[in-house]
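Whiteboard transcription, Tuesday session. T.W. wrote the structure tokens on the left side:
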């Protein structure tokens, strides 16, 4: 019996660590745009509102992908993750080649102005990339839910979202190094090769269910473990669950702050401090570093301190996040500063504040993504995670566009205050849900 238990424990951690490794490199095909916003805007003469719109196109396409692919994960399993990574890799290369393609099209059609065509091509390719990037979170979350029970799920999801936060660190470093050495196009070509390779390896070292390697399902006798087994029934179960819908609204408001910071922090430092792209990317990586620690901590806290109750951790995280977001733009001592004028101590202080902000921003993310399996049952976890993430990115898409307009017209402090207000509203919303302690919901 002990040997059987040890083997099951080995496989649980094997699945978790392999999924974490796969998702760690998934962001190489996504957040490279945040690093390259300024050089792209400078080359084509685009303003922040236009760059914000390009991000919004990605976010909304990603949200649609999450809504559909989470349900597909409940049916097809982990195979979606390598498929998404491979197509995303190809789409990133196409994005980097879009200006050259536009020049070729303009030559054939005799167009005098090609900037608009470049914008359209980039937008279309980036939206395709977004859909296939959405084959990561839901399938990975469903796979983890298959192997980990409710009492451990917060911890497991904390580790999973820890890898997502570390993915931000990874892509900020890799993309900024590639862009600094070979230009912004390199950030869309070389890091994504790692993403595709690791995703393929992930498929060959994992299994969808414990039953696939001779174990019993850990959810076999759990209440609510036998959930609807059709796509329509799984969507229906999610749409009629008021607590789950409130969680969707809350995470949408949270992601306004999350994506706002990740999208505008690098360019904020370039414009407010006059930093070069490499320095801005390296210092900005302190934000996702703090997010990684917060993600790991939130899962443990919700499981071990609050006995699987997620909403308290989420609410506290959002309120402290709002405070940090208001303080963050005060770090700038004005615009147009030279990087040479800034001391090492200033960069250290900025990095420390970013770590704290990231910690508060992501303390809630593990508890958030534990809620679908908690509220809907493990058999509907993929659908729930997909819908939760779809709402998150729908809110982020609208929020990033609004933040870009506010920053363009009124400056960074106004845009950051908007993000903070959304975080406060997210905290109020999550406190309205009712959680059942220690078990999945009954049918």
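and on the right, the sequence the group agreed on:
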């Amino acid at each position: 019996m002990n040997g059987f238990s040890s083997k099951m424990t080995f496989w649980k951690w094997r699945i978790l660590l392999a999924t974490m490794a796969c998702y760690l490199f998934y962001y190489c095909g996504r957040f490279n745009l945040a690093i390259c916003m300024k050089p792209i805007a400078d080359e084509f003469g685009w303003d922040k509102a236009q760059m914000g719109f390009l991000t919004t196109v990605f976010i909304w396409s990603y949200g649609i992908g999450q809504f559909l692919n989470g349900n597909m994960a409940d049916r097809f399993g982990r195979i979606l993750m390598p498929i998404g990574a491979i197509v995303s890799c190809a789409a990133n290369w196409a994005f980097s080649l879009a200006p050259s393609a536009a020049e070729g099209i303009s030559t054939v059609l005799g167009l005098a102005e090609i900037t608009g065509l470049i914008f359209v091509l980039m937008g279309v390719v980036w939206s395709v990339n977004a859909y296939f990037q959405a084959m990561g979170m839901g399938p990975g979350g469903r796979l983890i839910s298959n192997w980990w029970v409710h009492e451990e799920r917060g911890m497991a999801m904390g580790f999973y979202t820890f890898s997502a936060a570390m993915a931000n660190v990874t892509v900020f470093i890799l993309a900024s190094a590639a862009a600094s050495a070979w230009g912004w196009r390199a950030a869309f070509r070389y890091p994504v090769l790692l993403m595709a390779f690791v995703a393929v390896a992930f498929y060959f070292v994992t299994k969808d269910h414990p039953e696939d390697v001779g174990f019993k399902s850990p959810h076999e006798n759990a209440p609510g473990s036998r959930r609807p087994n059709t796509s329509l029934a799984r969507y229906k179960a999610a749409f009629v669950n008021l607590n789950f819908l409130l969680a969707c609204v809350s995470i949408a408001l949270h992601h306004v702050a999350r994506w706002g910071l990740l999208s505008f922090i690098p360019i904020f430092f370039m414009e407010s401090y006059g930093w070069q792209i490499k320095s801005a990317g390296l210092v900005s990586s302190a934000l996702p570093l703090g997010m990684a620690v917060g993600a790991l901590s939130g899962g443990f806290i919700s499981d071990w301190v609050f006995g699987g109750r997620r909403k308290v951790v989420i609410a506290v995280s959002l309120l402290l996040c709002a405070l940090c977001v208001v303080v963050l733009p005060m770090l700038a001592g004005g615009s147009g500063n030279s990087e040479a004028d800034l001391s090492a101590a200033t960069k250290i202080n900025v990095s420390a504040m970013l770590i704290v902000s990231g910690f508060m921003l992501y303390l809630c993310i593990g508890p958030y993504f534990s809620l679908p399996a908690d509220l809907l049952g493990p058999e509907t976890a993929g659908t729930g995670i997909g819908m939760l993430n779809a709402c998150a990115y729908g809110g982020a898409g609208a929020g990033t566009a609004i933040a870009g307009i506010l920053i363009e017209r009124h400056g960074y402090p106004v845009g950051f205050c908007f993000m903070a207000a959304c975080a406060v509203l997210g905290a109020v919303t999550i406190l309205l849900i009712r959680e059942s302690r220690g078990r999945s919901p009954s049918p």
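Someone added at the bottom: The chain has one domain: 14-203+231-430.
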